[in-house]
């Protein structure tokens, strides 16, 4: 018994140590700073106000599908924002697109997926999340078209926020994000540190220059607090979850799941979508779950089921569906869950066919 306990603890520690060594410094730390900057410097109301039923579909669904990256939302914050949108008059289609795409294309999750599970799967996750979010939103809007009449009345009664003018040059914030993304890309690139370090150093000096001469001190402080807030909410869960998954892998090796997820069949993709729909996984934890527990990184889990689980798991879960049902009713929630399962499975099946 003691030997089993020691073995599982060692497995958990080994798994955690590998993830810390390979992904934290070059991947997660820059990504947390980018996510904090998004929360601090991108105005949320400038995006959310375009979600009304009368807004052009290209604008409403386009913004809703990518707002997860812009707002840096995670699964723990998307539901309150969805409730606020829904109750303040957002169209059901854009609101559903928002609640689905938000956690799925979280900037942290996309970067982490690409770094740990591979660039192809990370890119597929981002692209399919956007496409599926729009498709599911449009279908929900078509099925429940009558609900948007009341939302039109609510959106008309909403007070308009006064326009504000930026004192800094318009190019400063885009350049700031370009430099931060440059640090992230350079840090994760497979190049020698003798080349990597000078580039990161130069980019960091450029970021510091912008902060000193084009940003107010309180803005920089807010960036720091937003970064810290995201870090303390997500990083401890990621550490504990990765350690626990390593221990679980000792008792349930990835080979256990090969009969269920080892091939990219339609049945395996449907099962992966269903598991993801009811299983609760905190933000970023879906990556080690798929990579370690289900064995994607060791070749046990096929790419199709991995993508299906990535598309369903972070966006919905049994607890989140219960919350959503209180916001928009049980009937709409059931339809939404079914659409997520079907579309995620089809996306995974298609990805499996393409990748062979």
Automatic annotation (TrEMBL):
Q: InterPro entries from the entry?
A: DUF318
UniProt key word Nucleotidyltransferase: no
Recorded superkingdom: Archaea
Q: What subcellular compartments does it reside in?
A: Cell membrane
Query: Does the keyword Transmembrane helix feature in the UniProt annotation?
Result: yes
List all membrane-crossing ranges: 20-42, 63-86, 92-114, 126-144, 171-191, 198-215, 235-253, 300-322, 334-354
Quick one: a GO cellular component term? Answer: plasma membrane
Q: What is its main location?
A: membrane
Q: Which UniProt keywords apply?
A: Cell membrane, Membrane, Transmembrane, Transmembrane helix
Q: How does it sit in the membrane?
A: Multi-pass membrane protein
Q: Which family does it belong to?
A: Belongs to the UPF0718 family.
Q: Can you name this protein? A: Permease
Organism of this sequence: Methanocalculus taiwanensis
Q: What does the organism's lineage look like at the top?
A: Archaea, Methanobacteriati, Methanobacteriota, Stenosarchaea group, Methanomicrobia
């Amino acid at each position: 018994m003691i030997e089993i306990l020691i073995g599982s603890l060692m497995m958990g520690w080994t798994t955690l140590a590998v993830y810390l060594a390979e992904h934290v410094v070059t991947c997660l730390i820059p990504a947390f700073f980018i996510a904090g900057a998004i929360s601090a410097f991108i105005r949320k109301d400038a995006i959310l106000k375009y979600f009304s039923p009368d807004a052009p579909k290209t604008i409403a669904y386009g913004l809703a599908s990518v707002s997860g990256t812009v707002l840096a939302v995670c699964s723990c914050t998307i539901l309150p924002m969805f409730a606020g949108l829904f109750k303040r008059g957002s169209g059901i289609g854009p609101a559903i697109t928002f609640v689905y795409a938000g956690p799925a294309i979280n900037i942290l999750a996309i970067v982490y997926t690409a770094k740990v599970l591979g660039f192809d799967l990370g890119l597929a996750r981002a692209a399919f999340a956007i496409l599926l979010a729009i498709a599911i939103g449009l279908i929900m809007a078509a099925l429940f078209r009558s609900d948007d009449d009341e939302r039109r009345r609510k959106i008309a009664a909403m007070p308009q926020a006064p326009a504000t003018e930026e004192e800094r040059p318009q190019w400063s914030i885009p350049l700031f994000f370009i430099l931060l993304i440059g640090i992230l890309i350079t840090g994760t690139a497979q190049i020698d540190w003798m080349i990597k370090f000078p580039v990161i150093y130069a980019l960091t000096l450029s970021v510091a220059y912008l902060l000193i001469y084009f940003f107010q001190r309180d803005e920089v402080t807010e960036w720091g607090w937003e970064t810290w807030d995201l870090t303390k909410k997500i990083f401890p869960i990621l550490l504990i979850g990765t350690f626990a998954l390593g221990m679980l892998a000792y008792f349930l090796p990835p080979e256990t799941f090969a009969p269920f997820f080892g091939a990219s069949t339609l049945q395996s993709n449907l099962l992966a979508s269903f598991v993801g729909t009811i299983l609760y996984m905190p933000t970023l934890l879906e990556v080690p779950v798929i990579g370690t527990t289900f064995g994607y990184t060791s070749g046990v889990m096929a790419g199709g089921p991995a993508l299906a689980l990535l598309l369903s798991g972070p966006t919905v879960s049994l607890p989140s569906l219960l919350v959503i049902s209180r916001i928009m009713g049980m009937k709409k929630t059931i339809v939404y869950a079914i659409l997520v399962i079907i579309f995620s499975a089809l996306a995974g099946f298609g990805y499996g066919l393409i990748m062979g």
